Amino acid sequence: MYSVRKLKLKKTAQLDALVLASGDLYSRTVVSFWRTVRKQGIWLKPSSMMRWQNCDNLHAHSADAVVQSFYAGLKSWRARRKENPESKPPRKRRRFYKVQWKNSAIRLRDGDLILSNGKGNAPLIVPWQWDTPTLVELGWNGDGYELRAIYSNASVGVPLGAEIAGVDLGEIHLAATHDGQECRIYNGRYLRSVRRYQNKRKGELSAQLDHMKRGSKRHKRLKVSKRRILVKIDNQVRDILHKQTTKLVSTLHQGGVQTVVIGDVRDIRQDLDCGTKANQKLHQWLLGKTRWLISYKAERLGMSIALQDEAYTSQTCPQCGSRHKPIGRLYRCGCGFRYHRDGVGAYNIRAKYLGNFGSAVVGAMASPIGVRYAL
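and the corresponding structure tokens:
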């Protein structure tokens, strides 16, 4: 897995010089390779070509990357011509070509990304508020220069000091989020009512089927009717989940959140015995579906996802660090702290991820914002 962060750059003389130098090196590599093949019948190895060709205006590893790009195209052609004998190898010269900086040429210092261009050359310095990437590429996207920072996995590339939001999934409320400043409670009562209606209709229709002869016309018609009714309710549930999770993710994205930390409750049903009604609610809790919807929608917008153990997050006071089980939807602590219990859970999930779980809150926490499902 890898992730890419893109940044548009204005055209400058330094950028023009870099892509021109890279294009010249690529053209020399193409000419030298095919001239050797034509005159001596030898296919030079990449290591030999990299020792032969160099560029004084680029970092040594950046020059190697240009040569390696040509050989990657050559390898692709050799694999492709097995299916299509008419496919052509890379022979075209390039006036401009992309520039790549590997890990050895990348530094991050005082909020600037410093890309080395070799000894005696001025480095390319770009304001950068994210972590250090493993590979950086400079290219042209059709209307301007674009810097592409590549990270080894999706959990890297989070802006330094960027917004991190904790998400507490719930059965009564679909989710609660806290980004360190604002708390939002996404109401799940309409979803619960639809699920209760689903259980009621399923029970009524099943009871009617039990009083009919199996295989009869009435039995077959009622089975078709039951299937149609339940599919309709499933579509309603899916619509509610999509609208609520889309609202949640888009709100976090607009607020500049780059990392979404979701409370890990995957093992909550193990050895569960909270009574008949509570067991039914928890076993029908769509926590996996909700987590998946939030995850893929957040990743599609460039945010990273992390799972955090939420043990005691709804029981620990964010202000004094004491622990006790709340009663009802309001968390009350002996130190005088009062807040919505789901908001406390979201805040502590975020704090646990940041490593300051149980530390005191600076100032008063803003009142949570309720978000209801909109038809």
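(Above: one complete record from the training split.) The helical segments are 13-40, 46-52, 60-80, 189-210, 217-254, 276-283, 287-300, 341-354.
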